[in-house]
Amino acid sequence: MTSSSLFPGCRCSHLFSFSCKMDFRHKISRQVRQLRERLKAVTKPGIDTPTLTKYCLTCKNLRLSGNSWLRCDRIEYSARLGCRYCIFLLNALKHFNVFDDQHPLHLCESRGSYYLSPLFKNVELELYTPTGYPPAWDGIAQDANPLHAVLSGSPQTSEAYEFIRSCLRDCDANHPECKIAGQRLPTRLLDVQHEGAPQVTLVETESLPVGHSTTYVALSYCWGGQQSLTLKTENLEAMKLGLMISSLPQTLQDAIAVTRALDQQYLWVDALCIIQNSPSDWEVESSKMASIYRGAYLTIAAATASDVTQGFLSGNYRETNAWYKEPYHEEWINQQDCSTILGARLKYGVFGHDDERHRVSALPWNLRGWTLQEQFLSRRLLTYHAYELRWGCQKKSACQCRSDLSRTFPTCYRMYSPTYGLVTWRLAREQWRRIVDDYTARELTDARDKLPAISGLAQVFQEDIQSPYIAGMWKNELPLNLLWAASKTKVGYAPELYIAPTFSWASISSPVDSLYRIRDANTAFRKGWVSLARVEDTCSILDGKDPLGRVKDGWIKLRGYIFKATLVDNENNGQAYCASTKYLETRIQCDTWLEEFQATNEHGDVERSVRRMRQPSVITPQDNEPSPSKIKGGAVGYLLLIGYNKGTPYTFFYFLVLGLSSDKPGMYERLGLSLYYKSEKKFEKFKSGLIAAADDYKTITIV
């Protein structure tokens, strides 16, 4: 090949060409040395320096049409060269203490906003121009939208209220799924009067003018004990005449203040709108929770207050939020030679508030049983969080720290409300499972509220599941619903009062875990599940007027394979047991601590059986610790084969562990759950042997 073919238009020889290349490299080396000398004379970043380059190859003068990756050392290098954009980025990174020369930075543009995100840090810097100044460049974000305002100092500032109003305006205008359809007003509401009025009045909504369009705000909060003032039969008429705001606990005073500030006239508060000493009124009104919270214009959640006396408007967000830092600003000259301001503010990154979930779950409001359905039933929820205000509706989520939770994960971070968008019955069943797991980990002041405090959610789910409801269980899915287990770390006594039949998760005080998963019709569990127990009959006897509330008795009749077993203590744990049959030995996940007693079986014979341990009449600190086993070897129990889940590489068999009923001869009570697994190769042989080894195939009643 000739030199001309290597270098078109050039007639030089190969040797001359090589010499030219070497001269060029020496020339570049001299320029680099000269440039390094010039850098020593350049002023430090942070000082108004002249721009030495028209276009920066590092930051591209922040004219982006997508994503790019930068390194802090390159930004620092270009800043020393005099790039004013890199100078600003460097100063902002150091201001927020996120400068990291070990990892790259993600620089991107999204809908006019520019974001700089340090890798492995769940924060990002957003570049913007404050309201009232010319844009630093065309298209940069400006604070025209109050949702982009800096974090307010407290929940009572004008910025905080403007955040709320802007969320409401946006939702009213753009979210048809959040509209209230066919509203039914609660029986009673508080008329909060006008700003500055010293009192509020209780209103019977049936007395409001016919056709009168009425909206109301609902309050979700923690009682924290007995309230000093509640609605009772003896003060009902007096409260209709007027109630001094100063006599109310602080949380209720704060709720009135917010309702007035949002130009709403009515407020619903359970303590003042339900007659607390009237069982009949309480039962009727508590059964309306679904319509009350679904029909509210807005629900206010006082998330930080563990007691009604604490209030939620007195906090200082900037003092309590160690993460927050004031925005960084620099004077700037835009392309039109106009003086302006370029700013950067720190926000949570694309994972939103994911890194604070352990703190959020510990908020008092998130630990209370009643508030779960109040949250999930609400169409729009305003949460007074520990560090900021947070908004959630069926379409979007927003927070005062300006994290754009929909920019990267548009569906994951909207308000989690499973009562809206239950498009399939399988989805409804899966959501119910999640709710039960969450709900049972929460606290209730009155254990008898275990079913009433979730009846509003049950009402909504029943519309989609289309199944009879039996003390927290769905009849159409009963075999799967029975696959729950008590938390291994929080097993305790059986409740002193009757709450629910033993087959229901509501019958114990411990958190539970549902062992089945039904995310959609094609999940491995749904495809592999085979039920071997047949539901023949069910019964749930109500204790009150709420059809999905308290029960005073109940039972289910199941037909299946029964295995008589002896319970054997686990040598390493006095409250762990194994059930031993003639075919297998399997460990038991107990619902409560267990004890032995003399029981009468269905044939009238007395035998040693096992039941849930009753709570002593007098509790000592030692009684809250696992006591030595009260089961002697040889006590009789029973296993009922519910079904199996065939999968790869193992198949799991599920057994209900039962004991004879202590007060209903011939019937059974649930003691726990047991799982036994076999490899895929041994499955068929084991299943055949298991069924052949059953002591009986019959119908039993579990109470």
Automatic annotation (TrEMBL):
Superkingdom, natural source: Eukaryota
One Pfam entry name: HET
Ranges of residues in domain Heterokaryon incompatibility: 216-374
Protein's UniProt name: Heterokaryon incompatibility domain-containing protein
Species assigned in the record: Neurospora crassa (strain ATCC 24698 / 74-OR23-1A / CBS 708.71 / DSM 1257 / FGSC 987)
